[in-house]
Amino acid sequence: MWVPAAFFAAFTLVIAARLVQVQVIQHKAYAERAAKELKAGETLYARRGSILDRNGNVLAASVDTWDIYVSPRSWQDPARALEASEQLARLLANDVTLDHSAASQIREMVRSGGTGDVPVARDVDYETGRLILGSSIAGVTAIVNTERIHPEGDTGASVLGIIGQENTGLAGIEAQYNDLLQGKPGKSIFERDTTGDPIPFGEHVVTDPQPGRDVVLTIDRYIQRQAEHWLEKGIKDHRAKGGAIIVMDPRSGEILALATSPGVKFSTLNLNDASQGDLLRNRAVSDLYEPGSVMKVITAAAAIDAGVVSPDTTYVDTGIAYIYDIPIKNWDDSVYGTQTMTGVLQHSINTGAIFMVEKLGQKTFHSYLDAFGFGTPTGIDLNGESTGIIRRPTDNDWSPVDLATQSFGQSISVTPLQMLSAVAATINGGSLIKPRLAKAFVGANGVREDIRPEVVGHPISETSSATIRRMLYDVVNPEGRIYPGAPALYSAGGKSGTANVPIPNGYDDRQVASFIGFAPADDPQILVLVKLDENDDLMTGTQAASPIFAKLADDILAYLNVRPDAARYASR
Prior knowledge:
The protein is built from 19 helices and 23 strands. 35% of the residues lie in helices and 24% in strands.
């Protein structure tokens, strides 16, 4: 009998040793494994901060929604899965934004979703989510989430941008200020039984998310709507392929409106369509173009500030200038004879711009281009900004002809925003101001942090700036004729540009028609760029773009309660 007793004793020792190993030596590891199997954890996204216009109107906000999850372990029994999926499908069918109405689709999602809790529906409206929670469907849980809404519809969509599934900004202001808007996510950890169902009175630990901050933009929703309206109309009327309108306060660098086309629209957005990815690019800050005769404003400002010419300096235009035996003609092949520098801007004379740049010299002219911010990003708070291109003597293909053509906006590439910022410095007293879209940040506690204007340089003097304002006023108000870009109620100044699109070894017939104007003339409160890309009617910037500025100036200044010019008002 001693053999069975010995065997029993040995067996007992083995069991005891195993118990010691499980309950003592490896207790922590097994306890963690058991807890992991009986607990589930989900991220609780913070309420994303709102995006407001400068007057506090909501442009983007978040509303509470639910993400619906299913535990695959609780649906291992086919009968149970069938009953639960049909019940869940009936409730989800009330949410018209979802495409998961069929129970079979839900079961397939759970079957192929892996071992962890499977998301079967996101951003379910709040009431539907509460109804699902209250129905105690086997294996189904719901986690609070938020959905982005846009009360102004598509207004400002190209500025606001979009967010992804994880509430992370993908483009526009949503991406630029994601860290502020997103806040800090929390965590929900809950206990469930062996079938995967949540235990009603089990352990439930929640780390509350911290809400994001609101971003107040410099954008004005009304001015943004007007800019988008007139851009769309201009593109249609002139059969253009696209364009941009930017409205800036030249005194502060604040962008009151930024409209681009083509651009993203919330109403037609489909991220599953790869071709729509290109629409997320804001062309006003990312796309380069040769500005054409608008650049004559910068050339004149540099020449005036350097003291090499005055508004009344004269020269004789023969209709053509020769640069190392290469002929450069005026844009319309005209001969203007004796002209002042003001006349050069009024008639947009290419040879006059060459006259000024030759007075300046290459080194001085390029130092002014640098001072005005060309060739470097403006620093606007929007992702994807381009730097621009200036051909220089250090480039392998540089030619003295490049200096001549740069004086009237060729051989140099800029973004619309770069061009607008540079012109702002010519008419605001000589200060280059960093353009911006954010005006303030507001925390969940209501504390507001205002953003102050940032002056980044002084390319010309205040005296030179006043001179350029008068010269540009004379462009829009020529003696003896009516200018298309003159507002009806306000004095204004500005300059048009009509540039052909560059191709290798030359230019083709496609063109960019543009105009940059400011009003009122003596105290500019708005500066507006209007740009139409590849307009099929081939109308010039004066003909196609300047009338849009005139309409916008009258409308915007009246909206801003700026008193109309008395003489213009009386003449109506």
